[in-house]
Each structure stands twice: as structure tokens, then as C-alpha cells.
Amino acid sequence: MSAKIITITSGKGGVGKTTAVANIAVALASDGKKVCCIDGDIGLRNLDVVMGLENRIVYDLVDVIEGRCRLRQAMIRDKRLPELYLIPAAQTRDKSAVSPSDMVRLCDELRPEVDWVLIDSPAGIERGFRNAIAAADEVLVITNPEVSAVRDADRVVGLLEAEGKGAPSLVINRLNPSMVRNHDMLSAEDVLDLLAIPLIGIVPEDESVIVGTNRGTPIALDGKSKAGQAFRNIALRLQGQQVPFLDLDAHDGLWARLQRLTGRK
Amino acid sequence: MSSFFERLSGRPSSAQSAKERLQLVLIHDRTDLTPAELEALKDDILTVISRHVDIDPDAVQIGLERRGREQRLVADIPLKSVSRRHAG
Q1: Distance CA A198, CA A192 (A)
Q2: Contact criterion met (CB < 8 Å) for A184 and B26
Q3: How many beta-carbon contacts under 8 Å exist across A and B?
Q4: I want to staple A27 with a disulfide (CB 3.0 to 4.6 A). Which of A89, A101, A232, A246 is the partner?
Q5: Domain tally, chain A
Q6: The whole model's pTM is what?
């Protein structure tokens, strides 16, 4: 095995990095792949709660890097999926506890063990971001169709280009199709035109994301939610499959469709 | 619904203003060039060019353009023709 290492980053906080990591990881693991997630947000640990693994933490990322445990001991195994693991962030340390070369070394050790490594980057463009992208083979930039999120995503894309990381792929998260139709939200095309990087996924705004996070059950595990489907599609595209983008209009009620028919959009 | 009234009122939709504002902001973020610095650059370019050829400063257009992730400084500088210069 030689894992592919993917980092998910955004610049701005709160756009859905952690949710995306948890759901893409769950989707890859459901496809039978061996996946390890790393929470790169040292001091603000969260991937553990989103994945529902918070009660099982013994060792963390900094423990591995500082030699207090072996890599295997810090990998928490998810009970729902046999081949899904999490290396949690340290909660009582800060970003300076890890260096970019530490991350490269850790990921090199992880590479022969799994198929995919997903790194959850902290918000910002400082040390934590540098650590998170150091070992990445591929970077996904996630944004919301909203002015400040797009601007910050553009900064991050510029920094990744300057680092020689190549063009990252774009995830547009929390798109609200009815607001887009009313011209009250940037469309996926608008965001794509502004950022000018390849698109890998569009995830609609979906209340079940919050319900899933409440329970520690990523929604990609359940078959019904649209956002879950969108995350599963991203996982398929990462694996090289051509998957058409979801028709986000299909979920509309009769009223919205009638409005469009009568040209009232 | 708001966009319906906006179209009645002739104002651009909020999505449209978001896009236009972002287009401008991203150009300046990417080039690290403020609008004031761009003005100063334009003035310098005009000074250098008019040292060699006759130009009409009011007809000059210099601006930043975005093509994908690339920014270009695009200048359109009409030159006054020799005959017109002699006639004038």
C-alpha cells in the first residue's frame, strides 16, 4: 500500500473543513479503502467529536511526534467501519508543537499502512496551515458561496501555488439552490469562475449535517441525505471515477418548480 | 423573492454585486497592488511614453485584467499620428 495524502483547507474558519474530512473519510472507508484521518488543528481538536470518537482518545498527534507512543497506538479505530482510523490533535498544546518536517515524517510512516490519509487543516494561513499542507500529495480547498469565504480561499490557492503544490481542487460547500435561483447567492459557476481551479464537489446546504454532527455520525454513512451523497461523490472522484455533479434542483417542491416554469425563478 | 423586487427596482441582484466586488478585490489581493499604487504606476508609464511619442493622456486606458488565475496589466495607448501633429 502507498497512501495518497489529501489535505483539506480553506483559509476562513467555519466553512466545513472538519465536516468534509469526516464525510469523505467515511465514504472512502465505505468503499472498502483503508483510511486514516489526521486532525491538524492542534489546540482546537474537533474532528474526534464530529466523527463520534471523542471518548476513545488515549494518545494524540503530538504524542507520536514527540515519541511518547508508536504511530499505531495513536490511531483510533472507528467501530462502524473496519478500516477507518483517526489520529486526534493534541488539545493542550499549540501549533508550534509540530513542524512541517514532522508532518512529512509522520505521513511517510503512515503511507505503507493505509490507502488514504486525510488531513484536516486548521483555519488561517500560518504554522498550522503550513504543517497541514507539508505532506500533501493533493490539496482540496473548501469554500462557501459567500464573499469572505471565497476571498480567503483565493488567498490560500495563491499560497499553495507559491509553495509549488500545484492547483488544488475546489469543494463548494453549503450551496443553497433556492437562494442561487433567486440571485441572492453566488452560484457554483460564479465561484468557479472567480477562483479558476478544478471543481471536485458541490455540497448543498443540508440540515442533516448538523443532526449528524450532534450524534457524531457523519451523514455520508446514511443513504438519504443530499449532502451525504455529494460527499460520497467527492470520494469517488478522488478515486478517479467520473461522477456527474448532483442535480440540486431535483429536490425542490412543486411550488419552486412551478415558479421556474412561470419564469418567476 | 427579494430579487424579484430588485429587478423591478433595476438594482443588480445581491449575487451580482457579490461577484463584481469579489472580482475587483481578488485582482488587488493577487497582485498586491492597491488602486492608489495602480494610479501612480499609470502616471509613471504615461510620463515615460510621452517622452518618446505624442499621446493623448485622456485616451489612454491602463488596467488590470483577469484571465483564469493570471493577472495582466493591459494598456491601450493610442498614438497621435505624425500628420496630425504637424497639422496641429
Answers
A1: 8
A2: no
A3: 53
A4: A232
A5: 1
A6: 0.88
